[in-house]
Write a structure and sequence with these properties.
Shape: globular
CATH superfamily of one domain: 2,3-Dihydroxybiphenyl 1,2-Dioxygenase, domain 1
Structural class: alpha+beta
Order of helices and strands: HEHEHEEEHEEEEEHEHEEEHEEE
Helix content: 10-25%
Strand content: 25-35%
Low-confidence stretches: 3-20
Radius of gyration: 20 Å
CATH class of one domain: Alpha Beta
Number of helices: 7
């Protein structure tokens, strides 16, 4: 009983000492999402040939060949608890969005692939905004894509203001392809893909909103419970209700969307940082040592192997996670002098 009381007191103390104006990890940049995948080649094919993203490019802007496996550096071994492993990495950009997808494909490592349902806390959905959802849906059978939407055809959402289809990529990440009835902005990129947002399934909306407000200073707009049958049918969850909340990542056009479901069984994810199916948002801060001390004091689990900052490719990093097992890679350029410990 004494332990339980002390835990409650600690939680109350954390909540009372923070305000929206004093985040523990003030973010200066974000938008790159790292995705631990089961097969890099199949992931690139899915997002290029089905979703319609541009092929990975080299520094000269030409199509890049698939990278070979190579040994992890000391920094990556710390960040992903991946000592002795090999890895290959590829980045794909999403037109019209600050969201970038970086795929990491590990081998020679003990991994537990994650296969959540869309309603399970920790599940990640990449929401791709397009001019024509029917064009993308027609490619599903051609590319062997797993479609969650019954009948494999786009359905109307939000009272007919959008049409969408839900799919899964080869690793198990969820992908929603959505076409809005609103006019496409004049400055939108050419081509079918015109933007993106990021969806995370959460266990508890209020707890998640407090975390993102107190840790990162995000202005989370919490939504009400709804029974939009178009959305739940499209996601393959006809009996469920959901609650959608939103927040913008600082200095980006990337919206995070938090979905809490009820009326359906849910199993929270419990993943390790290197498991296929794990998603990680990279966020830059000004002072990584002060940030690490602050988020640790606030209760954020630090999940890289050392539990401290580590250096990789001229950046200092550490890894943390939210209450739903969505992960964060926090970074600061190494050329900025680190303050004393």
């Amino acid at each position: 009983m004494a332990i339980f009381t002390s835990l409650i007191a600690a939680a109350l103390s954390w909540a009372q000492t923070l305000t929206p104006s004093t985040p523990r990890a003030p973010v200066v940049e974000g938008g790159l999402m790292l995705m631990v995948v089961s097969n890099l080649d199949r992931s690139v094919e899915f997002y290029r040939d089905f979703v319609g993203l541009p092929a990975p490019a080299n520094a000269q802007g030409r199509p890049a060949a698939a990278p070979p496996f190579g040994p992890v550096t000391a920094g990556l071994a710390d960040l992903y608890d991946a000592r002795g492993a090999q890895v290959r990495i590829t980045v794909m950009r999403i037109p019209g969005s600050d969201l970038q997808l970086e795929f990491l494909d590990f081998r020679n490592l003990d991994m537990n692939a994650q296969h959540p349902h869309v309603q399970d806390p920790g599940a990640t959905t990449i929401i791709i905004k397009v001019r024509d959802v029917d064009v993308v849906a027609a490619r599903a059978a051609q590319n062997g894509v797993q479609v969650l939407t019954p009948g494999g055809k786009p359905v109307a959402l939000n009272g007919g203001t959008a049409r969408a289809i839900f799919t899964k990529d080869p690793t198990g990440f969820f992908v929603e392809i959505v076409q809005s009835t609103e006019a496409i902005p004049a400055n939108a990129p050419a081509g079918n893909v015109v933007g993106a947002s990021l969806g995370i399934t959460v266990a508890d909306t209020d707890e998640t909103a407090r975390f993102y407000r107190d840790m990162f200073g995000f202005d989370v707009q919490t939504g009400m419970w709804t029974s939009d049958k178009g959305f739940t049918d499209a996601a393959g969850l006809p009996a469920a209700q959901y609650r959608k909340s939103t927040a913008m990542i600082t200095t980006t056009n990337l919206q995070m969307e938090f979905y809490e479901y009820r009326g359906i069984d849910r199993t929270p994810m419990r993943a390790s940082i290197h498991d296929p199916g794990v998603a990680i948002m990279r966020l830059a801060v000004k002072d990584i040592n002060a940030t690490l001390r602050s988020v640790r004091a606030g209760g954020m689990p630090i999940v890289n192997w050392s539990g401290e900052t580590t250096i990789q490719a001229n950046w200092w990093y550490f890894m943390g996670r939210d209450p739903n097992y969505f992960f964060f890679q926090v970074q600061q350029p190494a050329q900025i002098p680190r303050p004393p410990q």
